[in-house]
Amino acid sequence: MAFAESAHTALGLWQTGRNDMAWPLMKGAARFMLDFMVEAPAGTPVAGKLVTSPSYSPENTFLLPDGKTHAVFTYGATMDLEIVHELLTNCILASKILDTDADFRKECETALAKLAPVRISPTTGRILEWIDDYKECEPQHRHTSHLYGLHPSCMITTATPELFEAARKVLLGRGDGGTGWSLAWKINMWTRLHDGDHAFILLTNLLKDKTLPNLFDDHAPFQIDGNFGATAAIAEMLVQSQIRDEKGTFELQLLSALPKAWPTGSVKGLRARGGFTVDLDWKDNQLTQARIVSQLGGPLKVQAGEHKAALETKPGQTITLDGALKEL
Description:
The protein has helices at about 1-15, 20-35, 80-100, 100-115, 160-175, 180-190, 195-210, 225-240; strands at about 40, 50, 60-65, 70, 135, 240, 250-255, 265-270, 275-285, 285-295, 300-305, 305-315, 320. By secondary structure, it is α+β, with helices and mostly antiparallel strands. A hairpin with a 2-residue loop joins strand 9 and strand 10 (about 285-295).
């Protein structure tokens, strides 16, 4: 969807300091959605809540109560709601940081509070792909669009345990097969669930069954998503930084999805949110040392297993931590 692409482009510009371009683009995308959304009518599962209509969940189909296959439009598809949630959340945060457009920020806050929630099926325990609990025509469909809130967004994390578990059940139901690009998406999602061993199974499937001799992703004949997606997943097996505290500080999670198949190793130059560059060493699946360079300065929060650390950094400062996150 164009507004989703616009929102991601704007967020990237904002994070690199191009506020002169980012904020107008973010605000324009949000304004479009504020005008586009409608209240769900009485008698629907989310009556009175804001939804997108028409709406569509690429490229899956569902069965209507009369048993007929339906692949056209619905309303309030879960992917839409997650994208809108991300866009409005980022607009609110950006407005506060830039100290601008307070009235527009209030509009976004009001709409976010009224946005239809992501729903969990009472029968399967999975995140619903559509507002209604439809039966899927293809239970192991290659798309996992309704898990956008898990990846690439940060809406579904360990801080939302019910949705976190419901997302895991979706992936279990979808299975470990798929096209090359589909496997790459699933690898990233299992990584966000901190299940490095399951992510490794899919990474092995991708390399074994969906990678050509020249290392191109195989999708009749080629699709770059599988290559870039698998690389992104490998990076997040080692460092994740999508969780933000109430003050807006990102937490660096080190080796949170490390597979048992990689018991000992090292990595250099991984980038983390908040302006950090991370080098890691580990042995016997445990962190032994982390070297973190702070590009911007400011607070640094780190987690590795049961260990946590919170430090203040200066621009250009290098912090070296041991396996228990004690400063060396």
